[in-house]
Amino acid sequence: GSGGPAEDPAAAPVTLHVFAAASLQEPFEELGEQFESEHEGVTVEFSFAGSSTLVEQIQQGAPADVFASADTKNMDKLTDAGLDAADPVDFTTNTLRIAVPAGNPAGVTDLASLTGDLNLVVCAPEVPCGAATGTVEEAAGLEFAPVSEEQSVTDVLNKVTSGEADAGLVYVTDVEKAGDAVEGIDFPEAQEAVNTYPITTVDGAANPELGQEFVDLVTGEEGQEVLAGYGFGGA
Amino acid sequence: MRTLPRWILLPAGLGALLVVLPLAAMALRVEWSDFWALITSESSLAALRLSLQTSLTSAAACVLLGVPMALLLARTDGRGMSLVRSLVLIPLVLPPVVGGIALLYTFGRQGLLGRHLEVLGVQIAFSTTAVVLAQTFVALPFLVLSLEGALRTAGTRYERAAASLGARPSRVLTHVTLPLVLPALLSGTVLSFARALGEFGATITFAGSLQGTTRTLPLEIYLQRESDPEAAVALSFVLMLVAVAVIALAHRRRSA
Amino acid sequence: MRTLPRWILLPAGLGALLVVLPLAAMALRVEWSDFWALITSESSLAALRLSLQTSLTSAAACVLLGVPMALLLARTDGRGMSLVRSLVLIPLVLPPVVGGIALLYTFGRQGLLGRHLEVLGVQIAFSTTAVVLAQTFVALPFLVLSLEGALRTAGTRYERAAASLGARPSRVLTHVTLPLVLPALLSGTVLSFARALGEFGATITFAGSLQGTTRTLPLEIYLQRESDPEAAVALSFVLMLVAVAVIALAHRRRSA
Amino acid sequence: MSLVLRAAVAERHVELDLEVGHGETLALVGPNGAGKSTALSLISGDLRPSSGSVSLDGRILADEGTWVPPHDRRVTTLSQDPVLFPHLSALGNVVFPLRAQGVPRGDARRRALEHLDALGLAGLAARRPAQLSGGQAQRVAIARALAADPRLLLLDEPMAALDVDVAPALREQLRGFLAGRTAIVVTHDVLDALSLAERVVVLEQGRQVDAGPTTEVLARPRSAFAARLAGLNLVAGRWDGHRIELEGGGRLSAKSPLVPGTAVLAAFRPAAVRLAEQGLPRTVHSLTPHGDLVRVRTEDLAADLSPQDAAARHLAPGTVVHLAVAPEDVKTYLA
Amino acid sequence: MSLVLRAAVAERHVELDLEVGHGETLALVGPNGAGKSTALSLISGDLRPSSGSVSLDGRILADEGTWVPPHDRRVTTLSQDPVLFPHLSALGNVVFPLRAQGVPRGDARRRALEHLDALGLAGLAARRPAQLSGGQAQRVAIARALAADPRLLLLDEPMAALDVDVAPALREQLRGFLAGRTAIVVTHDVLDALSLAERVVVLEQGRQVDAGPTTEVLARPRSAFAARLAGLNLVAGRWDGHRIELEGGGRLSAKSPLVPGTAVLAAFRPAAVRLAEQGLPRTVHSLTPHGDLVRVRTEDLAADLSPQDAAARHLAPGTVVHLAVAPEDVKTYLA
Ligand SMILES: Nc1ncnc2c1ncn2[C@@H]1O[C@H](COP(=O)(O)OP(=O)(O)OP(=O)(O)O)[C@@H](O)[C@H]1O
Ligand SMILES: Nc1ncnc2c1ncn2[C@@H]1O[C@H](COP(=O)(O)OP(=O)(O)OP(=O)(O)O)[C@@H](O)[C@H]1O
Ligand code: MOO
Ligand SMILES: [Mg+2]
Ligand SMILES: [Mg+2]
User: Fold this and answer.
1) Does A233 or D104 have the greater pLDDT score?
2) Which CATH superfamily is domain B28-255 in?
3) Is the dihedral of CA A213, A215, A216, A222 positive or negative?
4) Quick one: pLDDT at residue A9?
5) pLDDT, position B256
6) Nearest to C16 by CA among D299, D123, B68, A175
7) Domain range annotation of chain B
8) Which pLDDT band, with edges at 50, 70 and 90, does E165 fall under?
9) Which of D172, D155, D170 lies closest to D79 in space, CA to CA?
10) How far apart are CA B94 and CA B100, in angstroms?
11) Chain-chain contact of B166 with E86 (C-beta, under 8 angstroms)
12) For the ABC transporter domain, which residue ranges apply (chains D, E) (predicted)?
């Protein structure tokens, strides 16, 4: 290991618990490995789930050092409960993109073509991506008739990957992740609904300093580079 | 007048506590002032209606398909049957989400069967039919397993007597076998109804989530949790009440 | 030599297809070339190990707590028992996620019991204990219900004969009642083991998802689905195999 | 008294008042539905009396406030149906009560094998109940009950399924075993009653109608049932010093030291009945072979006639006959 | 022949060769475990023969290639255990076979009530089997079997649980019902065999050891079992013109037109046996009351003596006695 400040080589092995929104899984796992290589004796354990689940768990005493949320609403829940150890920092953004199955069987070209006779799947208004969908819908003056309003982006994406849906509205990062199975179609109205990801250390954590170091890694240059590699936008 | 050893009260009590305490803890969190408003919202009522309707249909489908399966498993022996039994029970062990994926691979647009149905203009995914399919898939083993056990325990002496009196197999089935295992059939049906009522993972994966069409109560609860946890707790409480009512009703009929 | 009406083959076959087709469809999607690598990754093995360990513990807990409960329910009658039965069965009907919330409300840091345990320095949530608790919570009713049905069907004549021969209640229980319902006890145990093995919603909510501590196979599958659907399918297949093995084993012992 | 049963079961219209002395075997007889099994259930603890009490060796087993559970009564029932534990072998079944009393495993096995052997079942020790014939199963059940060594043994038609070959031997064995023990035997078999029990109680419609030493009750029956069990004809009437004026009409000559004018019962064997010109007029109901004779049944009396006699008179159901008995063959006693 | 059973069940060591003529009632007798229930199971279709065949009225019910399912055989079994459907009332149980044959509901009810009535059970029509006494349940089972109106009726000890009160009446009813019908009665009761069956087959250890008209088999038994059933002593030996040289040693005087030198069987009634100075030497095994006599059992012979005789000779188990029979009381026939 190199570069860890004030690191005691004799210290017992420690585990850093990072609770992060499910959409952050791939970049965070990459960052976690990097963090471990820089901190000898430290293991980074992730708990990925929906942001609201994570908040609930932290409120009930889950051993989280760091919390990264997929939206500000859930981060607010944490701060309202006074469980943030430091002020949350917005560290990345995500925007919507149309996902269609490989080959684009329904011939989708833009947002307006989603109102045609096809199987459209979106997020439910209750979850962050669904709120964003509502915003772009309004901005474009359209009214969608989806066949399903899903619980999470992953559910939307899965319907598209499996070819069940002809089109879905998901995040840019999801299209990247899905690889060849789907094609992405950008649309200008997406800029009306930019989703912000905040991160913070958690009050009462076992490793507050290490946690802050992880937050620093994510918000720092290296972190931003890794995030961008998965399609995330700048904070 | 049966006597049971007294010590079983301790583990039995512990077991009851393990189940009852969480339910009590949840009931304590219900905001009673808003309760009525929360559970009578349009979306809640739609979900409740859909849930009851699909679960009842699924329970009926389970009885229709599962009773014959249980009979075959209980009354025929052989190498093959044991494999069939294992296969039939798999939905029990599969995480429902995986079950949903498997259903997609079968009945989805590009699925094993679905691609042929698509040609015929039939689309199952995103329809209420898909919900029923998903619920039946996960609930069927409950009925089969509990009924098979009862059929084995009940034995065949009454069936033999009935055949000796000239009753054809169908009559033996409807007039002797099924009435004799009625308690088990009822509790198996309750089990499968309950499992269908609580089904979440397979439904969301295979059927999607649209109000009035595919968004059942568990999906509604899960969704409300994101925006309105109070509503979610209130709805969970309603689900509990429905379950208690169904179970109590089934038991009343059984002892009657 | 028992004869069943021939027509039941049709619904039984349909039922078997409903279950078997999706499993076949999924097996068809497994990428056999990568299969071994996918399922022997560190995280997969950790999840498999944790799943087996917790599910076995939970099944044992279900037997320990559930057998006494089933006995009480089957052998005592009265108004009160019917309420207890309904309560005990509720975990069946609750969507597992809601069950997880209820468990958090009980054993979580601010929960009914948890806040007292916290003072004693004991924390249950987010530990392997929590996984076992969640699994036991959802799996217990399976054992209780299937065993209660069998106990009722078996009746009390052998128990009465045993008492007449001077056997105390404990001996009657261990030497007569339980051996007589052994098939049902075994299938009830398999049911609860299987349910524990497939448990997802309550675990992720109540126990969280930490590799090696609380991330069981279904959680791993769920996680892999986000990043590596192939791995998820392969792992689901492994889960299926484990289930088939357990069920087949239980049946072998039962017929032996 | 060892057992005192003074109890009622209202819903079955049964009201009993029985006593069994220490070391005594009581036969309980009576028609189907008379309440015999009900009496045994009250004693074994399978049934709670709706009023009254049951006590054994001075200990109250059941009354309004007391309830001794069945396993604690040291009362073992051997019923019409063997109820062998299906998951245990014949040997395992007999070992069961011994182990329940804390006999060590090896000892219990040895003693159980002795019991099986005594009943001629040693060769079947390893069989499961499902692999035994009806009579074999019943004998295993008897061995098991004997092994339980109860304070009071209840036998509910123990011989019903046994063949003529085995029954006498078993009756002997049971007799040896019952000697000095307290037991109640429910039976439809006069031989069982005679050979096993010192005293008999006759139940009819839930009430005791006759009781006394077995030979006494069978020799001087006071109920139609006891008479049929003993194979005797029974009539009631008034003794006028020479004849009995029968209740149903007619007269019967007899010899008796009883005071004229008293109400009497009279019993006589069917073999003592003959056809006469001037007997009691009766209609033949049925004719059945009876040993080397033919038993002729009428509305109330039975006669055992030689086949020659029966054939000569062209007897058939419906024929009217006149029945007579020699006065010295009629046993007369106070009603 | 109506029923022809020529079949074996290897695992039970049973090999049978039975025929029952049209309209005939056959009694099947034999010790416990002889194979009686096995024979019935083969005929009813509860058991498959390991070789051989079963046919009824010319139709093959079972052989290597054929298997007619039980419900299609029109063979009804009435077993030791009533097996009443517990979820149906007594009436519902009797209605069952009628409905199974397509009798309309109202008709079936009416006919079922008649059957119950005929057996004196009309008052119990609404009872569940659990609310009946053992004998009541057995009678409902009989009514149910009669209602099934089978081509062949199999009775496995139908009277075992019936009281002396009801058995004769029921035997009469069964006799009327069996007249002109084909039936097999398994029984341990000589009265049942005599009154119900024209012909008897004696089984021992899975094989037929004696067969013939009932009175014939009982009068001239060829097996120890048949002799015991008939209540006769049976000995085997060689006829020398005046006496029989018994197989076990000793001689017995008799009168017989048989050719000297032939192997013979001889039967005589226990009542014909008396104690003599110069009889067959035997050891007393047991003494039991037998009607108004005392039955003395020895290793192979039984004697019915008057209580006075028995008491005068101080008979007790172990006493050696000499038994004699008057030559005219010994029935001799070819072995
Ligand atoms: N569970 C019951 N509920 C109601 N009545 C019953 C029940 N069991 C028996 N009876 C009735 O109680 C009365 C006495 O029955 P019990 O079984 O004692 O007769 P029993 O003398 O043993 O006759 P059997 O010789 O036929 O066995 C009968 O009229 C019978 O119908
Ligand atoms: N299921 C079985 N498996 C193996 N052997 C059996 C089975 N049932 C009976 N047996 C044996 O087969 C032989 C014939 O039995 P079966 O039941 O036919 O006798 P049974 O003549 O009816 O006797 P009982 O008068 O005691 O009823 C016996 O030796 C018995 O132990
Ligand atoms: O990552 Mo989220 O909280 O499921 O949109
Ligand atoms: Mg009785
Ligand atoms: Mg038999």
Assistant:
1) D104
2) MetI-like (1.10.3720.10)
3) positive
4) 46
5) 40
6) B68
7) 28-255
8) low
9) D155
10) 10
11) no
12) 5-230
What is the model's pLDDT at position E278? 85
Query: Are C24 and B112 in contact (CB < 8 Å)?
Result: yes
- Is D130 close to ligand 2, i.e. is its CB under 6 Å away? yes
Token pair recorded at residue D136: 């074999």
What distance in angstroms lies between residue C162's CA and the mean position of ligand 1's atoms?
A: 22
**Ligand 1 pocket mutation pick from D5, D9, D11, D12 by most atoms within 8 angstroms of CB:** D12
Residues of A in contact with B223 (CB under 8 A): 124, 126-127, 151
Closest in D157, D165, D172 to E228, CB measured: D165
- Residues A108/A165, Cβ–Cβ less than 8 Å: no
Judged against a pLDDT cut of 80, whether residue D90 lies above it is answered with yes
In which element (H, E) is residue A14 found?
strand A14-21
Secondary structure in 3-state letters for chain C:
CCCCCHHHHHHHHHHHHHHHHHHHHHHHHCCHHHHHHHHCCHHHHHHHHHHHHHHHHHHHHHHHHHHHHHHHHHHCCCHHHHHHHHHHHHHHHCCHHHHHHHHHHHHCCCCCCHHHHHHCCCCCCCCHHHHHHHHHHHHHHHHHHHHHHHHHHHCCHHHHHHHHCCCCHHHHHHHHHHHHCHHHHHHHHHHHHHHHHHCCHHHHHHCCCCCCCCCCHHHHHHHHHHHCHHHHHHHHHHHHHHHHHHHHHHHHHHHC
Give the DSSP H or E segment for D320.
strand D320-325
Lowest mean pLDDT, pick from A82-96, A116-130, C159-173, E286-300: E286-300
Ligand 3 environment, Cβ below 6 A: A 21-23, 50-51, 70, 127-129, 152-153
Go through C85-101 and write b for each residue having 16 or more CB atoms within 10 A of its CB, e for each that does not. Answer: bbbbbbbbbbbbbbbbb
How far, in Å, CA of D188 to CA of D36, rounded?
Answer: 11
**Chains A and E touch, using 3 or more CB pairs below 8 Å:** no
Contact between D288 and D265 under an 8 Å Cβ cutoff? The reply is no
Determine the Cα–Cα distance for residues C68 and D56; give it in Å rounded to an integer: 33
D166 touches chain E (CB under 8 A): yes
Q: Exposed, middle or buried, D123 (CB in 10 Å: 0-12/13-18/19+)?
A: exposed
> For ligand 2, is residue E38 a contact (CB within 6 Å)?
yes
What is the predicted pLDDT for the residue at B1? 40
What are C133-150's pLDDT values in tens digits? 999 999 998 889 878 878
Q: Which residues pair with E210 in a beta bridge?
A: E202
**Cβ proximity of E23 and E5 under 8 Å:** no
Write down the pLDDT at residue A152: 82
Ligand 3 atom with the smallest distance to the CA of A152 is 4
- C105 Cα to chain E: minimum distance (Å): 46
Mean pLDDT in residue range C7-23: 86
Write the DSSP string, E194-209. HHH-SEEEEEETTEEE
Q: In the numeric block, which tokens belong to residue A40? A: 């000898």
Residue bearing tokens 């620093």? A216
| A neighbour chains, 3+ CB pairs within 8 Å | B, C
pLDDT at A5 over 50: no
Query: What are the beta bridge partners of residue D253?
Result: D243
Option in E30, E32, E160 nearest D136 (CB):
E32
Q: Which of B89, B55, B87, B48 is nearest to B190 (CA)?
A: B55
- Sorted by where each starts, the structural domains of chain E and their CATH numbers stand as 3-227 (3.40.50.300), 232-334 (2.40.50.100)
Cβ–Cβ below 8 Å for B3 and D69:
yes
Across all residues in chain A, what is the average pLDDT?
A: 88
D257 CB-near residues (< 8 Å, 6+ apart): none
Q: Of ligand 2's atoms, which has the minimum distance to the CA of residue D133? A: 17
**Distance separating alpha carbons of residues C63 and C70, to the nearest angstrom:** 10
